[in-house]
TrEMBL record:
InterPro entries attached to this UniProt entry: ACMSD, Amidohydro-rel, Metal_Hydrolase
Any GO BP: secondary metabolic process
Keyword check for Hydrolase: yes
Name of the featured protein: Amidohydrolase 2
Coiled-coil regions listed in the entry: none
Keywords from the UniProt entry: Hydrolase
GO function term, MF aspect, one: hydrolase activity
Keyword Hydrolase in annotation: yes
């Protein structure tokens, strides 16, 4: 049997001129690690060398706006252009090993949509990464509709990355790193539900949105409702909304749940490099998917085939 193609959909990389910022109110243990992680996020050579050592065939690079924008500020369109120009150059330096998701402020209306079109059509990037929310808007908001419409029309995926909402992150601070993750996962789940509640999936049937495993609660809540069944594998042919989950780690039971609910054709390997404690490696991916009880075809899809299909536009 040929080796599985391993694609890590959740890999962070940002132009060195825009240092990666820690999540708002980050737990102390995360804050202590952040300086080293920020250096790695800007080190393309190191990223490629590490991927080679660990047997990762393709990494999908992204820098969501909240990763590179000071808290309380909006990412200026000129900065987004520079970030995306640099990302396109980085991908072009190793096209067989890298793909890139354009950094887009989805809540900037038509200006965001214009940059999305430029990044895909002129720069050749493979999709978009957006913040899943702001402190007062979720991804289903009217302001984000132009960006989502463009993504659907161009046939490229949108990676809805978590943010650290101010009130929840402060409220959960006593939980340490669990509190940081819980706040980010809660807002990510809410963003997923907003796409359903605000009719985005119904209005844009060609929209493909990837959420990290942190948003799993939104998926579980949606699936318990009649309208929410449209995002599951049980949806009638032709009516299934295109919602994907990246594994954001290597927990077999969570991956099994996601594949049972969404179908193995809607789950992607994602390591949250370099923020996650566990490194993405070929051995870890293969072992985890086997322990999750996936058969050979399911493992092939989750390990890389799904990501390659999404990025093929």
């Amino acid at each position: 049997m040929p080796p599985l193609p391993i694609v890590d959909f959740h890999t962070h990389y940002a132009c060195p001129a825009y240092p990666a910022l820690p999540p708002r109110h980050a737990a102390p243990e995360l804050a202590e690690r952040w300086r080293g992680m920020a250096r790695r996020i800007a080190d393309l050579d190191g990223l490629l060398a590490e991927a080679g050592r660990h047997g990762i065939d393709l990494r999908v690079l992204s820098a969501p706006p909240a990763l590179v924008t000071p808290h309380g500020e909006r990412t200026h369109q000129a900065d987004l252009r520079r970030l995306n120009d640099h990302l396109a150059e980085a991908v072009a330096s190793a096209p067989e090993r890298l793909r890139g998701l354009a950094t887009i402020d989805a809540f900037a209306g038509d200006a965001a949509a214009d940059e999305a079109v430029r990044a895909i059509r002129e720069l050749g990037l493979s999709g978009l990464v957006v913040d899943c929310a702001t402190d007062d808007q979720l991804l289903g908001a009217k302001a984000a509709r132009p960006t989502l419409t463009v993504a659907a029309e161009l046939g490229v995926p949108v990676f809805a990355h978590p943010i650290s909402p101010d009130l929840m992150t402060r409220s959960f601070a006593g939980l340490g790193r669990y509190g940081t993750s819980l706040a980010r996962g809660t807002i990510n789940a809410a963003a997923l539900l907003s796409l359903l509640a605000d009719g985005v999936f119904a209005d844009l049937p060609d929209l493909h949105v990837v959420f990290p495993m942190l948003g799993l609660a939104g998926l579980a809540l949606a699936a318990a409702t009649d309208p929410g069944e449209t995002i599951t594998v049980a949806a009638p042919a032709g009516q299934r909304a295109h919602v994907y989950l990246d594994t954001m780690g290597f927990t077999p039971a969570a991956i099994r749940f996601a594949t049972d609910l969404l179908g193995a054709d809607h789950v992607l390997v994602g390591g949250d490099w370099p923020i996650a404690v566990r490194e993405t490696s070929r051995e870890r991916v293969e072992t985890t998917l086997t322990r999750a009880g996936l058969d050979g075809e399911q493992r092939r899809l989750v390990a890389g085939a799904n990501a390659l299909r999404l990025l093929a536009a």
